[in-house]
Amino acid sequence: MILDSPSPSLSSISSHFEDEKEERRRLHHDAEVVIIGAGVVGCVLAVALSNQGRSVILLENSLKEPNRIVGELLQAGGVETLKRLGLGHCLEEIDAITVTGYDVIYHGEEVEIRYPKPPGAEDSARPTGKSFHHGRFVQKLREAAMRAENVTVVETTATELIKNGYTGQVLGVECKTKGEKDYYFGHLTVVCDGYASKFRKEYNRHSPVVRSKFYALELIDADLPLPNSGHVILGDGSPCLLYQIGTHETRALIDVPTDCPTASPAVGGIKNHLRTVVLPTLPESVKPSFEAAMEQQVRSMPNSWLPPVTNKTPGMIMVGDAMNMRHPLTGGGMTVGINDVALLTELLSPELCPRLDDTTTVLKQMKSFHWKRKDISSVINILAQALYSLFAANNANLKALQIGCFRYFQIGGNCVDGPVGLLAGIIRNPFVLFYHFFAVAFYAIWIQATMVNPIFAPFTLVFGGLSIIWTAICVIGPYIDFENERLPVFGNPSTHSAFRSEESESESERSSAPWSPPAWRKGSSGWLRQHRFPPPGASLSHSASPLYESAGEGDDTILPANVPLPASPPKQTPADNSPGASPEYERREYPQPFGGGYPARDKDRDNSMPPQEQTGSYIRFAMRAEVQHGTDPYTSMFAWIRETYKARTRTTGTTLQSLLVAFIAWTLLKSVFRPPTPLPTPDLLKATQIARTFEPLIHYSENGVQQISDLQETSVAIWDLGESIRSTNMTSAPIIVSELDDLSESMKTLAIQLTSFFANVDGDVDGILIVMEWAKRRLQTIEPAASSTSMTSALDNVHNLLSRVGILESADGPTILGRIVKEVLGETPSQRNAVTLRRTFDEFLTVLEESINNELMHSIKLFGLFERIDHQFLNLQRSVIRETDQQEHEEDVLLGSLWARVIGTRASSLKKFDKNKQLLINVRQRTVQNKGILLDHNGKLLQLKSNLEVLRKKLVSPLVRSNDSNVLSVEEQIAGLDDTYAHLKNVRERQKQKTLEMLYSSGSRRIAIKAEEHHEIASGRR
Question: 0.70 exceeded by the pTM?
Answer without folding.
Answer: no
